[in-house]
Write a structure and sequence with these properties.
It is built from no helices and twelve strands. By secondary structure, it is mainly β. Strand 4 and strand 5 (about 45-50) form a beta hairpin.
Length: about 120
């Protein structure tokens, strides 16, 4: 049982920055990964970045490496997506994701989505 609350998003010109936040209510004994996906108009949802909460292992999709980071606040159980040097192709709805592994089964939970629009 996980609930996610997203905040952030908005309109920014190319080259600008935005920061998304995702606060998770999750059982402390769970092993889980938090991350971000996005979906551009007419496109499939794609992975953006993730962090394993216990290990701190971070992954980024190639298109955002060097531009995006995924910091976290352990005390607040919150993950962020810091987006710099934004491009129009970054436009889309960004979804916070929590993946909890129970035995050999993964369970996915999703935030409500945050619109990010990058103008040229």
């Amino acid at each position: 049982q996980v609930q996610l609350v997203e905040s952030g998003g908005g309109l920014v010109q190319a080259g600008g920055s935005l920061r998304l936040s995702c606060a998770a209510s999750v059982r402390t004994f769970s092993s889980y990964t938090m991350g971000w996906f996005r979906q551009a108009p007419g496109k499939e949802r794609e992975f953006v970045a993730s962090i394993n909460w216990s290990e701190g292992d971070i992954h980024y999709t190639d298109s955002v490496k060097g531009r995006f980071t995924i910091p976290r606040d352990n005390a607040k159980n919150t993950v962020y997506l810091q987006m710099n040097s934004l491009r129009p192709e970054d436009t889309g709805v960004y979804y916070c994701n929590v993946r909890i592994r129970v035995n050999v089964v993964n369970y996915d939970y999703w935030g409500q989505g945050s619109q990010v629009t990058v103008s040229s």
